[in-house]
Amino acid sequence: MIPSFGASGTQVTIKGRDFSKDCNVDFGPVPCQKPPTFNPDGTITAEVPDGTGIVNVYVTNPLGTSPAVPLGQFAYGGPEPVVVTGITPDRGKANDSVTISGAGFAKGASVYFGKNASPSVQVDSDKIVAKAPRRARLRARPWTSP
C-alpha cells in the first residue's frame, strides 16, 4: 500500500489480487465514502476516510475480507509505520552482517543486539544491514513486528 501514512482524503494505492468491481475498503472500522478506483495494473486506489492513529486496511469482496497484515497498515498524520518482515541470518557471531527486511525504516536508525549497539548500520527504506557488535551472540529468537 502506497503511501502508508497521511491525512484523511489521501489517495492510497493498494496492491493485491482477486479485487472485484464490488469490493469495499475500510481503514480500521471506518469504511471509505467512495468506492475504490480500479487501475490498469491490477491495483486499486481508495480515498482515506476520517480517522486517527495506526489502523489496519481491509478490502472486502464477495469472497470475504482480507486479513490484517503488517504492510497493510495506515498511519494518520504519519510517520510511516515501521514493519519488520524478516531477519537473516538468525544465528551468527560478532562482526557478522544481519539484514532486517521490512518497510518504513528511516535514516539514522539504530540497531541493538540485546543491550549492545551495532557499530555499523546501513539504512534503506525497506532494509537495514547491521554488523553484530563484539559482545553479541546471535541465536534464533522469536520476534514480532511492533
From TrEMBL:
Stretches assigned to the IPT/TIG domain: 3-68, 83-134
Database matches in SUPFAM superfamilies: E set domains (SSF81296)
Gene3D superfamilies tied to this protein: Immunoglobulins
Cited InterPro entries: Ig-like_fold, Ig_E-set, IPT_dom
Name this polypeptide is given: IPT/TIG domain-containing protein
Lineage: Bacteria, Bacillati, Actinomycetota, Actinomycetes, Kitasatosporales
